[in-house]
Amino acid sequence: MNGFTRRLIAVTAAATAATAVVATAPVPAQAHSSSYVKVGYFTQWGIYGRDFQLAKVQKSGAAARLTHLNYAFGPVTADGVCASADPWADWQTPFSDANSVDGAGDVAGQPIAGNLNQLAELKKKNPKLRVLISLGGWSGSAYFSDAALTDASRKKLVSSCVDLWVKGNLTGLPDGVGAGIFDGIDLDWEWPGSSGNDGNVIRPEDKQNFTLLAAEFRAELDKLGKANRRHYDLTAFLPAAPAKIDAGFEVAKIFKYLDFGTLQGYDYHGTWEAKTNQQSALRVPAGAPDNPDFSVENTVNAWLAGGAPKRKLVLGLPYYGQGWTGVTGSGNGLFQPAAGPAPGVFAAGTEDFKTLKQLPAQGYTVHRDLRNGHAWLFDGKTFWTYDDPAVLLQKTLYIRSRGLGGAMMWSLDGDDDKATLTKTVSLGLI
């Protein structure tokens, strides 16, 4: 057994042990002394079908282990301004005692309710936690290109975003009622210069205009920060595919304006393909059918090769898996033909970690590729590629060894009620 293998076995053993203890570990009053960034996405719509409120982020211990919470998403409209995708969820819906961060339910006549009020309560409980509004996302990026096209349109967009989300001038409420909730802006333009969701406006000049848009956001946030004597963060979600990096980003320039960028560390493969595969491996596994292929290491190397500073690269980690069913062929299910997406609770082909972790008790076998850093579940018919605590701990070791800035997690509602994944990431990035 060589030294590399021994080290990975030790990592897996440590992760297994960690999983057993994180659920009962005491929640620190503030766990933000680490220099590593730990970003968790909270989805606006998660309060509905998923019944996942910010109170659960607090009660599970996840909030105490994050440095940043990104609230997803605020769309860019066809008029080139920022808006709420769902004002009811954002600042109108009342929460009961049980679903409130501070344990006291909302009452009629209070200045603000909804998720934003819960974010304010979360920050009171966790004073060092920074909360960012994420703009765009997969279904909210259609008009970024138009809004970034000219100096005037960029100024219009940035002014509206800062006014709505950072200054807190929420539509239909008293001016400034939401001030102080958001500590900055996260740009989730998916994707400048290349295809994303159907119907997105795309231009070749998006590449330069993304830089100019980031510069405008930075200038406006710095101007407000100077007046308020504070710093506002500016971050961005960045793609894995080299073609998308080349088409959309002046890598050596954009980090002048960004506090950090979060890298897409997942969705490398999925049920849009006819064969099972990994969705988030550290390295390309032996026998992979695609060459070149996606992996965490290839993603990180692509950004570094373009001139990105290591400490401003934050690795994205999935709290969900991609799954196929009707798998045929031999072996452990990897790289085998499949009939289609596996059934999922909320969508076919995807499933939360909190559900996948129960499958070994239902006849699934956990398989690991220690050298290449990925795991999967297979029962002879259905295959799920996912990250469990052992894989996440291995990835935190990778983050440390490469000198990266930290980890980002999509999304917090995929974790279990004990925040096992978030606690594992925090343990690995102490």
TrEMBL record:
**What Pfam families does UniProt report for this protein, alphabetically?**
Glyco_hydro_18
Q: Which reaction does it catalyse?
A: Random endo-hydrolysis of N-acetyl-beta-D-glucosaminide (1->4)-beta-linkages in chitin and chitodextrins
* Gene3D superfamilies per the UniProt record, alphabetical: 3.10.50.10, Glycosidases
Say if the entry is tagged with keyword Disulfide bond. Answer: no
Q: Which SMART domains match?
A: Glyco_18 (SM00636)
The catalytic activity of this protein is classed by the Enzyme Commission as: 3.2.1.14
Q: Which residues form the signal peptide?
A: 1-31
Q: SUPFAM superfamilies from the entry?
A: (Trans)glycosidases, Chitinase insertion domain
Keywords assigned by UniProt, alphabetized:
Carbohydrate metabolism, Chitin degradation, Glycosidase, Hydrolase, Polysaccharide degradation, Signal
Where is each GH18 domain found? 36-430
Return the PANTHER family for the record. Answer: CHITINASE, CHITINASE 12-RELATED
Its name, as the record gives it, is: chitinase
* Source organism of the structure: Actinoplanes palleronii
